[in-house]
Amino acid sequence: MNLIIMGAPGSGKGTQAALICKAHSLPHISTGDLLRKNIADGTELGKQAKSFMDAGKLVPDELVLALLKDRIEQADCKNGFLLDGFPRNKAQADALGKIVTIDTALNLETDLNKLADRMASRRVCLKCGYTTSAQDAPDGKCKVCGDTLVIRDDDKREVVENRLKVYAENTAPLVQYYKEKGVLKNIDGMQTIEQVNNAIEAALK
Ligand code: ADP
Ligand code: ZN
Asked: Is the separation of the CB atoms in 126 and 106 below 8 Å?
């Protein structure tokens, strides 16, 4: 089962991706998490990616593709995987189509006007990738590994606006792209986490 989950920044795709991967024992491949890990580890790739991410821009395709190929070739991806945050434009989708076949592309449909608020309250663990909200984690600690939760550099208001614009211009057209390939499943992303998860499970049956 080779899956993609798509949706605007702040649509909750990372949260849903983690639930799907747990239920189906699939590796969760988030290019955003992989990039943040590289930045935290101070790698050359991380250094190159940081300025793009902080500005809310897409990291250049060559960098992300190298990262993705490397990850997808690992043994745990043999029987399937879930891609979260990749592909983000047509060039990435075409490149992906040359290495693997995508069985289902889940698309979380959201109200773009409400996403900026969601991102402002988002808190993440840079160590393990766990994502939650300020309201749900009042102690500011990761409930998975205990590390301190932080606000992502690109969740600042002025950057969020740019990310939503980049999404509309580059990534939203992929909905049509996967529809034409006959693998698209639209999901109403404005429900509770549990309801969205149930809708996804129904779509995967
Ligand atoms: P979100 O979907 O909430 O924007 P991500 O963690 O998926 O969060 O992405 C954060 C940032 O990482 C993006 O704004 C972009 O700079 C970079 N990034 C992640 N995935 C890709 C990708 N496939 N191509 C280019 N840049 C990417
Ligand atoms: Zn953690």
From this structure: no
